[in-house]
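pls ignore typos typing on phone
4'-deoxy-4'-aminopyridoxal-5'-phosphate + seq
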Amino acid sequence: MFENLKPQPADSILSLMKAFRDDPRTEKLDLGVGVYRDADGRTPVMRAVKAAERRLWEEQDTKSYTALGGDPAFAAAMGDLILGEGLATDRRSAIATPGGTGAVRQAIEFIRTARPEARIWVPDPTWPNHLSILAATGRDVAHYRYFDAETGGVDDAGMIADLSAVAKGDVVLLHACCHNPTGADPDAETWKRIAETLGERGAVPLLDIAYQGFGDGLDTDAAGVRLLVQTLPELLICASCSKNFGLYRERVGLLLTIARDADTARMAQATLEHLNRQAYSFPPDHGARLVTIILGDPALRADWQDELESMRTRMLDLRRQLAAELRRETNSERFDAVADHRGMFTRLRLSEDEIATLRERHGVYMVGDGRINIAGLDTRTVPILARAIASLGD
Ligand code: PMP
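k done
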């Protein structure tokens, strides 16, 4: 049997991490992998997470199984964090999943169960693992226009035109905020038009919210999701606690569905739990429980929000600094959109050759499509990067 195995396609980001590690230069810059870093280049355990772990260690008296959907208190707390308290509470169903990736996988399985023929529309570009999961599950995939390479912003007109052509019952995957890989997000007006268009077409949104709190703040980052929940009868929402709680390796995620009424929501809950049962029975609990403790304790929650806010503003300051340095060094407006982007990523308008030159000549590692992780920079390295990019024209 094993002789039939073939090499799997290399994950471009993980290959880049390895190439960076193997590079002997000391003045190298890793802007590849999507992990937050502080000014010292560390990905720290957040203060509130440490405190919640201490409390859990002292107070937890059993490691027995939870429920198939995970602890209902986690689903309730996360549901409120994403939607705000009181929105569509009787239409919600949810399961805890291993990370946001697990939520995406289970969302696709949910669609496969409920409407296997649904075509799934994804933005061009999107997080490569969306495409990989859709291919692995044999889904019918189509792409809608999203990024305007000329302006570095969202191609609003192209996006709405493409979404106007989706069939009734199709699923439309949307990044709720901090689009990965481009950093370009729809503005409030475009979210309204998305809601109207999906409503007219009878399409179901699949929202991926992996960076809530990294863009413009916890509530603003969820505004698009909340608008769609207020407007549309059915939605799927995949959330990750990897970035905003720094719980990457603990694998904390949530798949939240919104049904048209409470009866259908009960059916959705049973289906979701069945999907967990088939995949791994019970979802991981440790990280989810830390999130529940933090969100349920006013002091821990305030401390978590403070720390998250300092991460967000650090990235925003770096983006503004980078846009300004690039403008100065290149004497052009080519990179101005960097300041308008949000979250951890920005797609720079660079050719493949330029990206290769940056790696070879300057030890700057970025993903092949020009995506950089802003958190991989600091106030010292921003000017170095800007000068390296400007020198490409020499
Ligand atoms: N969706 C998007 C758009 C992402 O960027 C990520 C993380 N890279 C995820 C989902 C899932 O993250 P995780 O499984 O680590 O929680």
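DSSP finds 14 helices and 13 strands in the chain. The chain has a mean pLDDT of 96. more later
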